[in-house]
Specification:
With about 120 residues, the chain is mainly α. The protein has helices at about 20-30, 30-40, 55-70, 90-95, 100-115; strands spanning about 45, 75-80, 80-85. Helix 1 packs antiparallel against helix 3.
Length: about 120
């Protein structure tokens, strides 16, 4: 892990330190996958408060930490806000097509889950 240079800097793995296992672990949780889907859709740095998640604040913090330590997102402070950015370029360079494939599969799953039940025979 890289070291923090100031009290407000957060540790992130360098591109070379990002491991497939950590990325897959980070993306395996439904809440974290939801965060990543939102970030990919918005294509902007988003504050933690942007996300309306069905978990407590401390659990939300945990999910963002797993994503950051896994190399999926980069977190930076701007004033008092912690902004989150998807590390698309790093992930694409290391694991070509992985993020796009996961996001496509997650979208297809969401459609299936929201589809109406077929009529009973």
């Amino acid at each position: 892990m890289t070291t923090a240079t100031s009290p407000r800097a957060l540790e992130h793995p360098t591109r070379d330190q990002i491991r497939l296992e950590a990325v897959l672990h980070a993306l395996a949780d439904p809440v974290r996958l939801r965060i990543v889907r939102d970030m990919a859709r918005e294509r902007a740095e988003l504050s933690c408060s942007y996300f309306d998640l069905p978990v407590t604040k401390s659990t939300t913090t945990h999910h963002f930490r797993v994503l950051r330590e896994g190399g999926v997102i980069r977190q930076t402070y701007r004033g008092t806000a912690k902004l989150n950015a998807l590390r698309e370029e790093d992930l694409e360079a290391l694991f070509p097509g992985l993020l796009a494939t996961v996001l496509t599969a997650a979208a297809a799953q969401a459609v299936r889950e929201n589809a109406p039940e077929p009529p009973a025979a």
